[in-house]
């Protein structure tokens, strides 16, 4: 099929994380002209895992089958055939049973655990984006409207500037674009500390199997417990055991400028002192130079809207979320799919239509994404028996199933149809 006619406007994408990269690929497929500005010297992601659920996979396909192909190339499922649909076996982290511990219950979906090493996924995505459409080492500072041409002038911290017809902020949790949308004084301009931090570890699988037994090492597990929880899943074709342990912190985090702090295994073991051997062994297997990752989100001051004029925010810039539902990246991809489909609409013919597109995107995405931010925080507490369910496992299970269903079973095609109706209005 012939490529569609290029749209008569130029979009600036700010940020090349999962949101910016998937949006760029979705734009390429639809002949939507863009330039991507990234503050780093290249596309990059950290060396840890990210799990993507069925809603994210559907959204990838809608962005462009090339996004899904990039994911498939590096995605890893549970090791056991009998657990291919298992998302997580839910276990009691405080159990002192060393071997063959039985799960409390299992969460399963159509694709089961499906995770990637972030850096490898980003590598595959970035191969799809032509270099000439990217400007690296460009950190956005401000955006003004050029009164003569009507274009938006972006100024970068290196003193340079560039123009575009619209600016899409995919600039993550510390977004600068967020402030340009809601104003410098809005409390939602900055994400807030959720009083949880996390340890992350990537461990050679053979060591994890030796310590935990094959069933728990090669398949997704979520361990519940008081004031902390831990989860793990295989990545890197099953060669690597990816561990993530969240801890409740009654204290404050010094500053949002630095989201990580050095930590020791002794501190981590102390944080998990009420937990059983399965958890302690995972900590022992981590490298000595551990880090604590502060978990920030936008739950306390959700943005009242995601767009202002021809500026709009996408992904964590709009709705930074804790990782307790493993869904933040998936929702970034949903955002990209909806926004790209709206811009592709044949009624969108000129610069003056862009504000209506961003209005329709905002109307379509704000409720679901802010639900996730709020629910994810509560779910972190649910895993630690702090939620209304306490230690009532039947209730914990019921609540988890209900919330995960809402994350996973999302009809992205229907969402786009509704957003297009909004555009018509
Ligand atoms: P980012 O990945 O932060 O990308 C923003 C980009 O913008 C960066 O490249 C940055 O350099 C650039 N940038 C920033 N400011 C500027 C500027 N002013 N000018 C130019 N460039 C700029 N989600 C899941 O779906 N599944 C999971 O399993 C999962 N696990 C997680 C575990 C942890 C510990 C955390 C913290 C999050 C997890 N998430 C998970 C959430 C997910 O990682 C995020 O939602 C997602 O990566 C956000 O992508 P993004 O592109 O919006 O932002």
Automatic annotation (TrEMBL):
Membrane-spanning residues: 9-28
InterPro entries attached to this UniProt entry: FAD-bd, FAD/NAD-bd_sf, FAD_monoxygenase
A Pfam family reported for this protein in Swiss-Prot or TrEMBL: FAD_binding_3
Keyword Membrane recorded: yes
Pathway noted in the entry: Secondary metabolite biosynthesis
GO MF: FAD binding; monooxygenase activity
Domain FAD-binding: 10-344
GO biological process terms on file: secondary metabolite biosynthetic process
Keywords annotated in UniProt: FAD, Flavoprotein, Membrane, Monooxygenase, Oxidoreductase, Transmembrane, Transmembrane helix
Family: Belongs to the paxM FAD-dependent monooxygenase family.
Name of the molecule in the record: Salicylate 1-monooxygenase sala
């Amino acid at each position: 099929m012939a490529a569609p006619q290029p749209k008569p406007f130029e979009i600036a994408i700010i940020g090349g994380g999962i949101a910016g990269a998937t949006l760029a690929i979705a734009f390429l497929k639809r002949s939507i002209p863009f330039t991507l500005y990234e503050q780093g010297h290249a596309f990059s992601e950290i060396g840890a895992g990210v799990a993507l659920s069925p809603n994210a996979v559907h959204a990838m396909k809608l962005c462009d089958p090339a996004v899904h192909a990039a994911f498939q190339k590096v995605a890893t499922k549970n090791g056991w055939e009998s657990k291919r649909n298992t998302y997580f076996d839910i276990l009691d982290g405080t159990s002192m049973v060393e071997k063959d511990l039985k799960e409390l219950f299992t969460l399963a979906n159509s694709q089961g655990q499906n995770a990637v090493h972030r850096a490898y996924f980003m590598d595959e995505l970035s191969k799809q984006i032509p270099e000439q459409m990217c400007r690296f080492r460009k950190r956005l500072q401000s955006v003004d409207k050029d009164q003569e041409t009507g274009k938006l002038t972006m100024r970068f911290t290196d003193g340079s500037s560039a123009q575009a017809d619209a600016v899409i902020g995919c600039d993550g949790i510390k977004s600068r674009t967020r402030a340009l949308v809601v104003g410098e004084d809005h409390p939602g301009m900055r994400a807030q500390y959720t009083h949880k931090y996390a340890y992350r570890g990537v461990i050679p699988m053979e060591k994890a199997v030796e310590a935990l037994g094959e069933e728990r090492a090669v398949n997704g597990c979520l361990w519940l417990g008081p004031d902390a929880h831990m989860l793990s899943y295989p990545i890197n074709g099953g060669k690597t055991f990816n561990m993530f342990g969240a801890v409740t912190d009654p204290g404050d985090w010094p500053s949002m400028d630095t989201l990580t702090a050095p930590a020791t295994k002794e501190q981590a073991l102390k944080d998990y002192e009420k937990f059983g051997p399965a958890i302690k062994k995972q900590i022992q297997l981590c490298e000595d130079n551990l880090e604590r990752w502060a978990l920030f989100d936008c739950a306390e001051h959700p943005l009242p809207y995601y767009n202002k004029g021809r500026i709009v925010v996408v992904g964590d810039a709009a709705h930074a979320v804790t990782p307790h539902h493993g869904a933040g990246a998936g929702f970034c991809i949903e955002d990209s799919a909806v926004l790209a489909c709206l811009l592709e609409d044949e009624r969108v013919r000129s610069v003056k239509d862009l504000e209506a597109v961003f209005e329709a995107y905002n109307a379509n995405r704000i409720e679901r994404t802010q639900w996730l931010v709020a629910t994810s925080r509560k779910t972190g507490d649910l895993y630690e028996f702090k939620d209304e369910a306490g230690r009532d496992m039947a209730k914990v299970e019921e609540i988890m199933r209900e919330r995960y269903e809402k994350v996973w079973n999302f009809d992205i095609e229907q969402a786009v149809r509704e957003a297009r109706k909004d555009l018509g209005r």
